[in-house]
């Protein structure tokens, strides 16, 4: 019997030292590891990087999500990690992505640079369901632009 699907929604502060090139290199490292390891763990999700913040949604069997999140907690690139939602989920919202990434292109930078004003995103006061909605909508918009 398959494990029940769980979803974790969190944000963290970027602690990657260095300039834009170093940050881009580390984000590529994060994405590479996620895209290699997540399919084996039955994890899907999306990562948003915006002005010093990471926002991420992880979906998968509870043991896999918990194990991955424990690694994130120990990852020195993340600070002030705040879990906004963790619990069972009725279905996957990111089934097409081992790890979608939002924020790579110049168009994304322009879009995500204004996300706070457009969506009300404030790391200090956003609710898990609202962050999930923002990340999901942006991932679908990104997929449509790439098609």
UniProtKB/TrEMBL annotation:
GO terms for molecular function: blue light photoreceptor activity; FAD binding. It comes from the Bacteria. InterPro entries: Acylphosphatase-like_dom_sf, BLUF_domain. Residues 5-100 form the BLUF domain. This is Blue light sensor protein. It comes from Rhodopseudomonas palustris. The lineage of its organism: Bacteria, Pseudomonadati, Pseudomonadota, Alphaproteobacteria, Hyphomicrobiales.
């Amino acid at each position: 019997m398959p494990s029940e699907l769980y979803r974790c929604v969190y944000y963290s502060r970027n602690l990657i030292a260095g300039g834009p090139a170093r940050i881009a290199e580390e984000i590529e490292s994060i994405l590479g590891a996620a895209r290699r390891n997540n399919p084996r763990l039955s994890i899907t999700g999306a990562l948003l990087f915006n002005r010093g913040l990471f926002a991420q949604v992880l979906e998968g069997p509870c043991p896999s999500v918990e194990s991955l999140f424990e690694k994130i907690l120990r990852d020195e690139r993340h600070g002030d990690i705040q879990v906004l939602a963790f619990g069972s989920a009725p279905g996957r919202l990111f089934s097409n992505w081992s790890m979608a990434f939002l924020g790579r292109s110049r168009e994304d930078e322009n879009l995500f640079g204004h996300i706070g004003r457009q969506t009300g995103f404030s790391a200090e006061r956003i609710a898990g369901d609202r962050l999930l909605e923002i990340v999901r909508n942006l991932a679908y918009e990104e997929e449509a632009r790439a098609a």
